[in-house]
Every structure is written in C-alpha cells, then in structure tokens.
Amino acid sequence: MEFVDTHCHIQSAGLTAGEPSTRDLWAKAPELTGDQLVTNALDNDVTKLICVGCDLADSRLAIAFVRQRINCWASIGIHPHEAGQADAATLQAFAALASEPQVVAVGECGLDYFYEHSARPAQIKLLEFQLQLALDHNLPVIFHVRDAFADFWPIFDRFPGVRGVLHSFTDSQANLEQALQRGLYIGVNGIATFTKQAAQLYMYKAIPDDRLLLETDAPFLTPAPFRGKINEPKQIRTVAEFLSEHRDCPLAELAQQTTQNAQQLFDI
After folding, report:
1. 142-173: per-residue pLDDT in tens?
2. Most CB within 10 Å of its CB: which of 13, 83, 176, 227?
3. Both ends of the chain: CA-CA distance in Å?
C-alpha cells in the first residue's frame, strides 16, 4: 500500500522561518526535523507529500524544501488571513513562483469568514488573483473556505476551468453536493476521527470514492487517538484506517483509490 499526504506544512519544521503559527507549533517538537518527518512518513507507507505554503515566504520555503526531495512537491499559496498584507509587490513576487519546478498547485487560498483576520473585499480580491494564476499555469487549487460558501461559489463559477480540492472540508451535505457538481475533490484529515457531529460523519461517508483525498494539515489537527501530540504526515495511515472502517472499505482499496485521485489532480 501507499498513501499520499496532499496537505502538510512540514517545510518549517526545525527552522526559525516559515508561517509563524506553524513554525511555533513545530518548535514544541524540535526532534521532528524535515528529514525525520519524511522518514517517518515513508516508514508508514506515506510515499508522497505536498507541502503547502500560506504566504510568500512560506511558499518559497516549501519550494526550497521539496527541491531536495524526490517524493515531495510544493503548493504556493497566500492564505485569506494574509490578504490585508498582500500588496502589489508581494503578488508580483508570488506569481513568479508558479513556474518553479515541483510546484503542483496554488493554495492554500480562499475565504475565511470565521476568523475574518482580513477584510472580506481583500480576501475576495486575493482569491480571484490566485484563481487566475492557477488558470494561467494550468495548476489545480487547494481551497481554504470557512463560513464563506455563499460568497465562494459565485467567485468560483466566474473562473471556468479551475479544478482543485476543498481542504479540511467540514461543511454541510449541501455544500458537498455543490462541490461535487463542480468536479472538486474533498480533503479529509484528522477531524474525521474526533468529530462528534453526526452530520459530519454522514458527510464523510457520502464522499464518492473518486473524489476523496487524504491529508494531515500537519502539524495541526492530530487524529484520535493521538490528540495532544504534534501531527505529522505519517498519521495519514491513522486517518485512512478510520475512513476504511467508517466507509466499510478495505484499507488497501482506499489507499489505492486516494493515491490515484491525488496523482490525477496534482500530476505527481
């Protein structure tokens, strides 16, 4: 069996650089260097990893990280939390990253109205910029959408041809159906293993096999029964084992299907 972690933030592990909240969480586990995380992943049959950027510097760090590793790829993104700081010079420098080797996606990007760290108009403008960048370079998009689907769907529909995945999807069955109608993939992580919401558990069962992707969001969202520890890509197996039982699907079949889905979307 082999698994793919389609969303992790391991590029800042063991460093003093990178997106601040991610970097600070890795600092609590100094033994988990980038090399160690990749080794641990391989030991648990996680053979491919996508390192996801959240701002310009973090995206550059992801590119540098994967350049040294044949089983890692980068996604370049500016998170909606950072929309207020994304000036013209930042966007120009960011756009240049899309042509770098081993860049396989744009994101994570989207809309976050739960925290709303940046004004909504700025978030929308930044999302539109990244959608156009993805189209210009024929790259899929890793979407972060929280409490914002009413605005997100009309924006998405103005960019025909965009393909991608809804990262860390925890929303409604109705929005799942909207996503599937648009051909999007659905990213599932450790939240599935500890949610108590019956509607979410039903939704995780309802995702079609050919639309399901596995992710960790490491170092965040550690799955049960490992809550309280720093998450890492090796825990893809834990998420997969939960989904195998929850969806009544043999683990080997789930591994094969989700790996095939990741290869199709990201061309890895």
Report:
1. 999 999 999 999 999 999 999 999 999 999 99
2. 13
3. 17
CB burial readout 75-92, b (16+ within 10 A) else e: bbbbbbbbbeebeeebbe
Sign, CA dihedral 127-100-34-185, equals: positive
- Per DSSP, the residues of 191-212 read HHHH---HHHHHHHHHS-GGGE
| Rounded alpha-carbon distances, angstroms, from residue 16 to 19, 34, 56, 265 | 10, 13, 16, 32
Distance CA 160, CA 140 (A): 12
- Residue 148 CA to residue 172 CA, distance in Å, equals 12
Give the pLDDT of residue 173: 94
Name the residue with tokens 């084992």. 241
- Give the tens place of pLDDT for each residue, 8-65: 999 999 999 999 999 999 999 999 999 999 999 999 999 999 999 999 999 999 999 9
> Rounded CA gap, 74 and 110, in Å?
18
Q: What CATH number is given to the structural domain containing 214?
A: 3.20.20.140
Question: Could you give the number of structural domains in the chain?
Answer: 1
Residue 166 belongs to what domain range? 3-266
CA distance 37 to 132: 33
pLDDT tens sequence across 60-87: 999 999 998 999 999 999 999 999 999 9
